[in-house]
Design brief:
The complex is a heterodimer of chains A (481) and B (390). By secondary structure, chain A is an alpha+beta fold. Helices cover 46% and strands 12% of the residues of chain A. The N and C termini of chain A lie far apart (64 Å). The model of chain A has no long low-confidence stretch (mean pLDDT 88). Chain B is globular. Classes of the chains: A alpha+beta (481), B alpha/beta (390). At the A-B interface, α11, α12 and α16 of A face α3 of B.
Amino acid sequence: MYGSLSSNLQKVRAITARHSDVNIREFSIAGSSVGAAIIYADGLADKDMIDQHILKVLMNDVGEETITCSILTNKVLTVSQITITHEIEEIIRKVLTGQTALLVDGMSEMLIIGTMLSKSRSIEEPISEALVRGPRTGFNETLSDNTALLRRHGENASLSMIAMKVGKRASKDLIIAYMEDIADSDIVEEVKRRVSKIDIDNLPESGYVEQLIEDNFLSPFPQVQSTERPDRVIAALMEGRVAILLDGTPFALIVPVTFSMLLQSPEDYYERWMSGSLLRVLRFAAALISLLTPSLYISFISFHPGLIPTKLAVSIMATRVGVPFSSLVEALIMEIAIEILREAGLRLPKPIGPAMGIVGGLIIGEAAVQAGIVSPILVIVVAVTAISSFTIPQYSVGIALRMLRFIAMFCAAAFGLYGVILFFLMLCVHVVKLKSFGVPYASPAVPYRLNDWKDFILRMPLTMMKRRPKMLKTKDKVRKG
Amino acid sequence: MLISAAILFLQTGCWSKDEIEDLSIYIGMALDIGEQSKVEKELEKQGAGYARKKTMTFTIQIINELKGGKGEKTPAAEQKAYINVSETGDSIFEMIREFSTRMERPVIGHHLKVIVVNEKLARRKRMDQLLDFFLRDNDIRPSAVVFISKSKASHTLETQSSTVVPAFRLLGITDNQYRSLKIMSPVTLAKLEGKMHAGMSYVLQNVVSAKGEVAFSGAAVIKGSSQKLIGFLNEKELVGLMLLSGQGKGGQIKAYHEERGEVISYEIKKLESKINAIVKNGKVTFEVEIETTGRVMEEWTPSELEINEAFTKQTEAAVKEEIEKLVLSTLAKLQDKYKTDVAGFGQRLRIQHPKVWEPMKKDWDEEFSQIPVTIHIKSKITEYGATSRR
């Protein structure tokens, strides 16, 4: 590679013919009138910076001395990030990420100057995980902003961030964050191993990473937690978990995950322990309700009329007289209708969404009862189920329970209460067998660790939670005192 | 393996699946001596019928579900909240299944609440035979309550009102036990089963009816050895029994002022009764201690009398005397007339002196009638209510 500017530029032009956004600007350096050129990508590079710190100094301020690489980097260019290269291909690669290349006639080295313009969304409150009390910050799409948010949490030299590249064609930055002196190194190594095994050409969102590193892709339950909240990630890191951040998405991943974590909200810890515990119990109950209510309805109506209190049985009978469908079909109609409504409400623009929910929920429900297609009791059942499923803080768990609800309904329709219990047992067996990065999914219930129960169904007072969760095998076991 | 699992799943179909609206739930049942209803006679004329002795008429009360809900199909106002159907025959199970040939919805017994047995039937048939089916059937709950009726049993399951369900009415009255000593604690099938197997005597609440109204009136005495109804306790005697056995939850005792003969109404708030079996020189005697605390709720004595120690003593004595009268009359009837122990004396003897009990238990009712019983009563008045007068 020789320092002839024109020949170099020719090569560059040959490559960038396909890149309409790459600009080449030729100029001569002030004192010596040596020819030079900068190459940058429109929109990616910061034009102000190019004008102020590259073009202005080179075209105005440089004296008569001969321009060499060391003079440029040491005396002239007032930019923090400069790398030197000899490869044209590398120049193109870097330019396409927003850096600027400086080529000087007669100089064999080429400079790559860090002029990336990061256009990022400002830090906003996370939409999918709104809290009453808690920080109003959420991750955005820029990786450096996200890592900065974690760093800014507090002075902590043990917070380690390992950068990796993923994606064969569209290579992206991915960061594995953990606490050096807390996290179990086996878990960290396992995460690194699984991430390095990702072999896919494109990763648009961290959901791809999640699906490629999870333990069991056949399970309905998410084995990786995704969150938009930096405080949640920090709390997980402090417990000894590992976080994975991907460039271009506000959703960070947390591993390993246990089932109880997915029913927890950061607020449980921010509120005092009694209200925190109450909300948690409530959420466990809501999860059960949203999973089982329709199937219990079916089994009571179709199989066990004797188990309903007499007066209730009478009023149910009265409302069901004239309903032409069996309880399963009836429940399926309404459940599917409400799932459609929910999906439709999600897709619609924000001002219309809630209106749609009201129209759908109220009017269709009322009309269906009036028309005698479904019984009013079922409308109550479906409504209670839907509302309960909204209390689950993790969207992905909500979806899992919604899917399982339908299976439970079919079991109920085939075997009655016996079927529902069978279904529930099978579900328990599955959850107990499931592992997330070596940590049993059902812990601390199975395997039983009494100490970890302090942060399970109840959230004990902070003064009592002195130790980190045992199931994570942390290096530093003591959290407090 | 997957296929076989799937087949297993499909093979079962939907066993015992029956939507609730396709069933009739019967909540009450009345057993009478055989007497066919008009409908039945008509049906039989048309050729319906099967080989049976017409010993019993059996009426079930089915909820009229159109009346129960607040659906759009508003039923006619005259329509009753229940439907009673009768069948005559000699096997209860056969009669129940016979309803399947008469109604589009099969009847189910899960919600059976009350069973009323007619007096005459109970005098003729053994209780354990009459109730055999109910104890066997696994649909019927052992919490169903058993009554005896001096009137026709099916009449207790009738009403003129369009909103009242008679079976629920009977059940509801048993809940008022804390307000009156004339109401026994409900005798469920579960309690009855034990007593029948042990050959013990027992009492069942008697229900009378007239023009669709019912009243609880005394109790029927069933002799343990024969399992047949042998007689009744009237309302006063039932109150005595409630006091004697301590079963009463509270209620009212009307006494008269010693000198003036004016009414004093005393409400029992707390009733405790303890039967003590005493064995001396191989002779069994019973001592009963009855303790009541309560308040004066009404009294007709003139206001110049002051509330003082003496007045309280007088009143307490009057109440005590009244209780004693009630208890003794009951005891006399049980020991002398019916020669049965329905107040639980035998139980106490069995617990306190099992060795003495053992030889006596075979013929306990007879033995009991010979055993002297002494009664000690303590009645306390704690307050005179909220009045400031006197």
